Amino acid sequence: MEQTFVMVKPDGVQRGLVGEVVSRLEKRGYRLVGIKMLQLTREMAEAHYAEHRGKSFYNGLVDFICAGPVVAMVWEGKGVIAGVRQLMGATDPAQAAAGTIRADLAVEMGRNVVHGADSPASARREIALYFRPEELVSYRRAGEEWLYE
Ligand code: IDP
Ligand code: MG
Question: Among 31, 136, 139, 149, which residue's Cβ finds the most Cβ atoms within 10 Å?
C-alpha cells in the first residue's frame, strides 16, 4: 500500500491542531502507521528542506520549522500521497480551497500548519529521514472492506 510522510509543523503543535490534522486524515480512511514527536535540529531541517536551499524564504523556513516541536507521521492508503496533498490544500492558505486544512486553519504561507510529501520519491526520502523501518507498523484498520471496493 502507498505510504506518505506528513508533519504537523510547530505552528500546528503550538496551536493545538495535532488532533485536528490526525482526525482529518483518519476520517478519510488513511492508516496511521508511524508517529513521533520531535524537536528538529537545524541539520535535520536543512535535510528536510534541501530542495528549497537558496530560495528567499529558505532561512526563515528552517528557523520556523525548528522553532518548536513537530509531529512526524507516516500514513498509508490508496493514493495517499495525492490524497493528503488534496486534504492539505495549496501552499498559500489564502489560495487553498475551502474545506482544506490550510484554508480552514491557517492564514499565511510561512505558518501553514502541515507538511506532506509531494511525490513517491519525496515520500520515500522523507520517511527514511524520520523513521527506521522497525518504527512503522503493518496492520489493517477495522472496516477497510467498507472503504475499499
Ligand atoms: P508545500 O509545503 O505545499 O509542499 P513547498 O513549495 O514545498 O510547499 O514549500 C515548503 C514550505 O515553505 C511551504 O509549506 C511554506 O511553509 C514555505 N514556503 C514556500 N514558499 C514560500 C514563500 O514564498 N514564502 C514563505 N514561505 C514559503
Ligand atoms: Mg513541498
Answer: 31
